[in-house]
Amino acid sequence: MWSLLQALDENDRLIRFTDKRSYSEWRYLQKAGRFRCPICNQQVRMRLGTKRRWHFAHQKSEQCPSGGEGESDEHVRGKQLLFHWAAKQNKATQLETYLRESKQRPDVYIEASSPLALEFQCATLSAKTLYERNTLYARQGISPVWIFGGNRLKRKRRQMFQIHQFEWYGLQYAKREPFLIYLDAHTEQVCLLRHVVAVLPSLALATPSFIALERLTLSDLRHPPPLSVCYTDSLYAYRQQVKNNVYRNRLFVHLLGTFQLTDIPLTAGWPLPTQRYLQVSPFLWQTSFIHAYLCHAFNSAPRTLTQIAVLLSSCLRQFRHPFKPYCNPKKVTSHLAREYLALLEVFGLLKKIAPATFIKSDEEILSCSGKEKEQHFLRCWHEWLLAHHKHAGEAETKQGKEASI
């Protein structure tokens, strides 16, 4: 059985729990009225209980073509909050409207030149479900805005957050800055998790920004104002944690033994923007790529980006399921190669002699070591990351759209 916040009465009037009525009025409607689902036209019951938020419920044996799910009290309250909030800013806001073309029922639908579908998600979904919903919305020219329940915001460290696999498919972008949105339906606080950078498949560097829902505008939700961030200290602490536990990881031990290393090289373990499409730690694939491919590739002559991308593809294929579902491995590999070569150039280990051609610098890639060198690399990585987002955002503005992978 699943719940609705609105239903049709016997006169085909839409009765919504977002409407203001007294308790006695609701009780009268419950006793005197008969209600139907506005989507499937089947009978629904008005529930005015004390344990859950009031709602209309389908019968257990009945199915609605919108494929509704069981909804928690937090979900129902969150939908109400988002509807009232959006309706104050856009009169063409609809609650639980049914999109017949795709058989979808977004929590809140906002009609505009670029229509929006606000989806409040508290429960865990499969990545497949979220991806398919996004695809159906895109086919109709609708932009989905996924807002996750406050219960899903999992802070591990000051700037480290646990991100469930399906939540990655709810990333929003403002001038190519990736961010996630969370709403605590009880405190009515919104958290924008800004500048999300994947470290592991389920771990990311991010900076939280909290604001009361009533103070947030629809424009700010879609395009948050600029925010300065700094991840050098957080990434340094994480790198030390990984190094201290390296011999507890079977794959790390195998890699170190293969290349006769006693520690993870300084040139490995750098989160890149495209890392979010991988299921392999940057410590693993970058260590393997540097020692098994990159150093040998640059021994004799300059190499092009295309040549390096081919080598990186071979490297990634050594790992089991290196890519996340529903991305283009060839595009991901090309972006990774471009980003990693650009970072090594910033580190001073490669030189660009043409727009997509590199040679080794005088400093040996394998000889990098020491705390001072690592601190220097951290500063270089952070400056490069911010510059990458800025330049990518400017390119997106000129093109009028975001490139997808």
For this entry, give a set of tags.
10 helices; alpha+beta; CoiA-like_N; 3 domains; Competence-induced_CoiA; Competence protein CoiA
Write structural notes for this entry.
With 405 residues, this protein is an alpha+beta fold. It has three domains: 56 residues, no CATH class; 157 residues, no CATH class; 155 residues, no CATH class. The strands form four sheets. Strands 7, 8, 9, 10, 11, 12, 13, 14, 15 and 16 form a ten-stranded mixed β-sheet that branches. It has a four-stranded antiparallel β-sheet with strand order 1-6-5-4, with no helix packed on it. InterPro entries: CoiA-like_N, CoiA_nuc, Competence-induced_CoiA.
Mean pLDDT: 87
- The SSE order reads EEEHEEEHEEEHEEEEEEEHHHHEHHEEH
Regarding quaternary structure, what we see is single chain
The number of distinct structural domains comes to 3
Stretches where pLDDT falls below 50 for ≥5 residues?
393-403
In percent, how much strand structure appears in the residues?
15-25%
Span of the ends, CA to CA? 38 Å
Tell me roughly what share of residues is in helical segments: 25-40%
Largest sheet: 10 strands, mixed
Helix/strand structural class: alpha+beta
